[in-house]
Amino acid sequence: VKRPVAVVGVGQTQHASRRSDLSIPGLVREAVDRALADAGLDYGDIDAVVMGKAPDQLEGVMQPEQFLAGALGAHLKPLIRVHTAGSVGASTALAAVTHVASGLFERVLTVAWEKQSEGNAMWALSPNLPFTPPLVAGAGGFFAPYCRAYMARTGCPPHIGPMVAANARANGGRNEYAHLREPMTVEDVLQSPVLWDPIRYLETCPSSDGACALVVASEEQAKKGPRKPAWVKAGYSYAEAMWVPGRDQVSPQAGRLCAQKVYEKAGIKNPWKEIQTVEMYVPFAWFEPMWLENLGFCDTGEGWKIVERGEQKMGAHLPVNPSGGVLCTNPIGASGMLRLGEAALQVMGRAGEHQVEGVHNALGHAYGGGAQYFAIWLVSDAL
Amino acid sequence: MAKLRNVAVVAFSQAPIVARDEHRIASEILYPEVRSALDQCNVERAAIDYQVAGSADYVDGRPFGFVNALDVTGSWPPKQDLHLEMDAAFAAYYAWVRMQAGDCDTALVCGYGKNSEGEPERVLNLELDPYYQAPLGLGPSATAALQASAYMARTGVADRDLAEIAARNRAAGAKNACAHLREAVPAATLAATPWVVEPLRRGYLPPYGDSAVCLVLAAEGKAERMCDRPAWIHGVDQRIEMQTLGARDLSRSAGAKLAAEKAFAMAGLASARDADVIELCSATPAEELILREAIGVQAGDRSVLNPSGGPLCGHPLMMTGLIRLGEAFRQLSGRAGAHAVPNVGRAIAHAAQGHCLQQNLFFVLGRERRWT
User: Fold this and answer.
1) 10-residue averages of pLDDT along chain B (372 residues)
2) Count H helices, E strands: chain B?
């Protein structure tokens, strides 16, 4: 990129299954107001707005950035709206980074949100595809075979999913913004019903109302700001076709390539040694070991062993999703930006009770589509 | 204006617009256009660094419609990618921003979505705010009629003036092989068509249709090798306004005015009248008048307006804006065929989306590079 870019403000809502106290603009404003206050900026300081969310069918409003333009403070400003399925929150933030990197904009507001209580996610996520029998099973029914294939391929035992889920909830309990914070044990997870074999009820993300907003800015602006910024060392978004013979759905090439590009650009040679924490998109517990492998933290078949040894817990070698991640909070469109925002908070040292000690480099990751879209950034405490 | 990177449109391909492409799904309509655009610049997909598309799930009548497009844009091995839930002209805008940021020299920009799968009058109602405006049942014809009324009340423009603008567009569209409506129709005939929503008659409203479009952008150093006559981008800007219809002066487009001023300043274009061709994304004759006022072009000026026939001769939602940019390229690069305007040196392409010209985007393009 042409010039350095930093995250100078982070804001998120209180996430819940129903924020019936707020309209859609109200929900978005809760996050945006907090991000601007965090950056010490006001609406008038913003040069452009980049908004993202998942399918408009989730709330039943087409291209809602149009009716939100006033609430976003975007009147008479440039605005773009991103949609890359589940990865959208992350690809939206990366598009905002590009705006600043181009040299054309100094301070860009980016926001991603979903108010799932306005609609029915199972319906909205069960498309009728041409030439494909409808599953009517939502995202869980779609991804369960991928998890099953991972288990078959690597010998991942059946207690790994429950271990991931219980750990995510323990982390979420320390995050004041998380939707699900009640502790649960591995035994609780094992006792919950199987929804889509092998995925159990308690290994599944919730449906949430929530929003996340970030302010990204140039080096000059970042150095003027009230707080220590998070420097975006690298960020890329990649996608791959669905119908390709030999496509590896368990460890998609787009994910591996995207991570590789990010590491290359950021100068990371050994991610396991050089990255202190990762916020990754785990909507179903089994994806945690799958993404540990796909992101290059370990070799194929080693991801579940990291979980079994507990090396991804708080206080261990590589805390994964210290915020509790998608398993505790899932406003779909916002989930990717929350991963990137949480990674930024970790390098800023402002993650509160779920702060990991000694973070210099943090990775934020999201995926979407049929495990086809990947968006990843690496943020650092030093320029 | 700081020096920017010279980027050009080097290829454009468009499926001729039809009311309904009966036997193909959206991605099947797109595939030949991607191939054709790559063939025009004599490269394979591997030569393109970045892809960005524009479409809308509600136009497709299903969530994740854009995911299917990955299968026909050569996204294997995986490609750097973004999708905007917008008219694909904004995808071209973002690709240009991306290329200014560096480490990306070429981009594929696609627009698609099968309008005939749904009923645009009802679908576009869902763009309005869900609390106060959408429940009124307003569709795009009704909101466009509110805007036309406001403009006519302020300026005294009459029904006959709208008919003449529509007739001029229809006459131009008759020569455009990609247009949907290709018959010249006299103003008197259009003025006799029934009201859809007064003051807009059937003849003053656009036909929705199916199409797919693919455009290729390339930076200086590569553009010259990919196209004999690249259309260089001289200036770009876009602005959105708040939506609330009652809070805006609908008889004017403040967003179009500001975006045009910024784009012209970047381009070093003193006046829109210095452009030889102007392609406006005006879905009604009243929108054309409002946009002309916003950019400062009057009847009788030398610039040729919408030689393609404009949206009144073909309006595939989420593609209409990118087609304006493609038309500017066709005119500048000598590829406009029967609707070519002679000796085009500079062109303006405009895109809009939302009700009553809520969001506006301008490109200024020229035969020569902008920055040296």
Assistant:
1) 89 98 95 98 97 96 90 96 98 98 95 94 96 95 98 98 98 98 98 98 98 98 98 98 96 98 98 98 98 95 97 98 98 98 98 98 98 94
2) 11, 12
Residue with tokens 């930093």: A6
Average pLDDT on A284-297 reads: 98
What are A271's two structure tokens? 């991610």
CB neighbourhood size of B228 (10 A): 11
Q: Do B71 and A124 touch (CB under 8 A)?
A: no
Q: Give the C-alpha distances (Å, rounded to integers) separating A299 from A290, A303, B163.
A: 10, 7, 69
Query: Could you give the angle at the alpha carbon of B158 between the alpha carbons of B153 and B162, nearest 5°?
Result: 115
**Does the global pTM surpass 0.90?**
yes
Closest residue in B to A55 (Cα) is B63
The Cα–Cα gap between A270 and A56 comes to: 39
Name every residue whose Cβ is closer than 8 Å to that of residue A178 and which is 6 or more positions away in sequence. A15, A172, A323, A324, A328, A329
DSSP B97-144: HHHHTSS--EEEEEE---GGGS-HHHHGGGGS-TTTTGGGT--HHHHH
Q: Which segments of chain A are extended strands (E)?
A: 5-12, 48-52, 79-82, 107-115, 194-196, 199-200, 209-218, 230-239, 277-279, 361-368, 373-380
Which residue type occupies A8?
Answer: V
Residues of A within 8 A of B78 (CB-CB) are: 238-240, 252-254, 257-258
Compute the distance between CA of residue B372 and CA of residue B63 in angstroms, rounded to an integer. Answer: 45
Among B81, B357, B28, B52, which residue's Cα sits nearest to residue B211?
B28
Pair of tokens at residue B298: 């009057």
For chain B, say whether A26 makes contact (Cβ under 8 Å): no
Tokens read off for B180 = 């949907």
Interface predicted TM-score (ipTM) over 0.95: yes
Q: How many helices (H) and strands (E) does chain A have?
A: 13, 11
As a whole number of angstroms, the distance between CA B331 and CA B99 comes to: 24
Residue B57 Cα distances to A23, B84, B87, angstroms: 23, 11, 12
State the Cα–Cα distance between residues A263 and B257, nearest whole angstrom: 43
- Please name which of B47, B238, B242 lies closest in space to residue B128, comparing C-alpha atoms: B242
- Cα angle A102, A349, A320; round to 5: 90
At residue A123, the pLDDT reads 79
- Cα separation, B304 vs B347, whole angstroms: 9
Q: Would you say A320 and A348 are in contact if contact means Cβ atoms under 8 Å apart?
A: no
Nearest Cα neighbor of A369 from A197, A252, A201 is: A252
> Within 10 Å of residue B39's Cβ, how many Cβ atoms?
12
> Would you call B2 and A23 a contact, using CB atoms and an 8 Å cutoff?
no
Q: CB distance A127–B64 less than 8 Å?
A: yes
Does A84 sit within 8 Å of B83, measured CB to CB? yes
Largest Cα–Cα distance of chain B, in whole Å? 58
Distance of CA B83 to the CA centre of its chain: 17
